[in-house]
Amino acid sequence: MKKIIFSTCLFLFLSINSNGQWYVKKYNVANVDFLSREQLDESLKTSKNELLYSGIISVAGVGVFLAGRYLPYEIDDESSFIEQLIGEKGMKNILMVTGAGIFTGGAIAGIVYLGRIGRIKSVINEYYTFNGTLKISPVIIVNTFNKSVVPGFTMTYDF
To answer: Residue 148 falls within a domain, yes or no?
Structure first.
């Protein structure tokens, strides 16, 4: 049984990592900075939808957990052999563990999509600025003649 679980996990890990990043699979570019504005907008819309779906999955996981915790579970005469073997308390525990697993999967997916949305928005703000945008960022000024370094700020106004 341990070999089957280990082999399945190894196969899933390798298959997930073999696909690469989402922008490589979908747009065949090496970096998200190379996407056009239309591709970035499409990716942002898709990522927001997938974030919504991951939130729905997380809520469903909480629902399964609460159902396992608070709803009564009774074994009747028509229950399966496994249900009779595990018992009522075991089935409730299985429901709670399943709900926690579903919630965890949805939460992890949500974190991934939040990171993706943040990255897409930062690329849009960096390369496709709007008219009248003011940027203030730190800068280090290096004087090669004196070999001195001075910190400062740079201000950029796009019009």
So the answer is: no
